[in-house]
Amino acid sequence: MTDHQATFEHALLAEPRRDHGYCTDDMARVLVVTTREPESPGAVNGLAGKALQFLNDAQSHSGGCRNRMDQAGRWLDEPTTDDHWGRCIWGLGTAAANSDVSLVRKLAIIQFERAAKARSPWPRAMAFAAVGAAEVLSVAPQNPAARRLLADYAASVDRGNGDPDWPWPEPRLTYANAVLPEAMIAAGVAVDDADLRQRGVDLLEWLLAHETADGHFSPTSTAGCGPGDSRPAFDQQPIEVSTLADACARAATIDARSLWAEGIRSAAAWFDGANDAGQRMWDSTTGGGFDGLQADGVNLNQGTESTLAVISTLQRARRFSPALQ
C-alpha cells in the first residue's frame, strides 16, 4: 500500500487505489502504529520516517495542515484545523514519546510545536491533539507548547450534563467516540486535573457498556447512535474498534480494574468474528483489515485506515493476552 511518497488511502480488495492518493489522516495513523511498535525493525522505522516527512510537508507555518495529496504529489486542499490536524498532532506526540529513533523523536517535537500553535473549533480534532500533547509531556514535562494546548483543551471540555441515562456530551454518538474520554483522561493526568481525569474514566466506562451487546463489542455505526435508537446498526467501521482499544489502554494506566483489559480483548476479538455479524474482519493472508462490517456481510476492501486499525488493536491486545505475545 506504500510507494516512494506515502501510503495510499484506499484499496480495491488488497490492491491500492493509486488514483485516490494519500491523506494526512492515514499518515498520522502510520506514524502512531510504527513508532509505538517496540524494537521496530528497519523497514518499520523507514515507514515512520516517510510518515514524518509527509506530515511535515502537510503543515503550514501557522500550524494548520493540508489533508489530501494526489498520486503526483500535489496537495489538493488548503491548511485547516479539521480532524486531520488533530490526528497529525496525535501522531507527532506519539512519535516523540515512543520512537526508538532519536532523530524521529527530535523532528516530531519540532513539528509538534509548529502544529500546536493552532487551535480547532472541533471537539474531536482538539481531543486528538490533546492526546498528542499529553504524550509529549510524558517525555518533556515542561514543554510549553504542549502545556498551553492542554490548558486550552481542559478549559473547553464538557464537564457533565447531569443525565445518568445519556451522559455523553453530544446528543448522538458519531465517530471516533472513544477519543473524547481518552483525551479527558490523558489531559487530566498531564495537568493534574482530577475532576477531568475522572470525567474521562466515567464517560469511557459508560461508552464501553453502551457499545457491548451479548458479550461482544457492538460499535456505533456510520449513521451514529442516539438515545433509544435500535441496535445493532450497520455499517460498522474498524476505526471505531481501535479507538476504543486505545482509550481502554489509556484508562488501564490509572485504573487497575479489569474492565479495561477486557475491553481491549473484546476489541481484538471483534476483528476475529466476535461481532454482530459473526464475520472475521481481517485477511490473515495479506494482513489487511476489511473496510466495514455490514448487515449482510463484509466490505472486503482493505484500505489503510482499516488495516492500521487491526494492527493498532493487536498492539494493544499483546499486553493483555499471552496468546498474542
Description of the structure:
It comes from Mycolicibacterium sphagni. This is Glycosyltransferase. The chain is globular and about 45 Å long. It has a two-stranded antiparallel ribbon with strand order 1-2. A two-stranded antiparallel ribbon has the order 3-4. A two-stranded antiparallel ribbon has the order 5-6. It contains 11 helices and 8 strands. A hairpin with a 2-residue loop joins strand 5 (212-213) and strand 6. It starts with 10 loop residues before the first strand and ends in a 7-residue tail after the last helix. Helices cover 50% and strands 6% of the residues. With 325 residues, it is mostly helical. Helix 3 (83-98) packs parallel to helix 5.
Short description:
With 325 residues, the protein is mainly alpha-helical. The chain is built from 11 helices and 8 strands.
Helix content: 40-55%
Q: Could you name the ranges where pLDDT drops below 50 across 5 or more consecutive residues?
A: none
Give average pLDDT, whole number: 96
Q: Calculate Rg over CA atoms.
A: 18 Å
Number of helices: 11
Number of strands: 8
Major sheet: size, sense and barrel closure?
A: 2 strands, antiparallel
Structural class, please? mainly alpha
Q: Strand portion, in percent?
A: 5-15%
Q: Give the H and E element order.
A: EEEHHEHHHHHHEEHHEEH
Spatial strand arrangement across the major sheet: 1-2
- Terminal residue distance: 26 Å
Assign an overall shape: globular
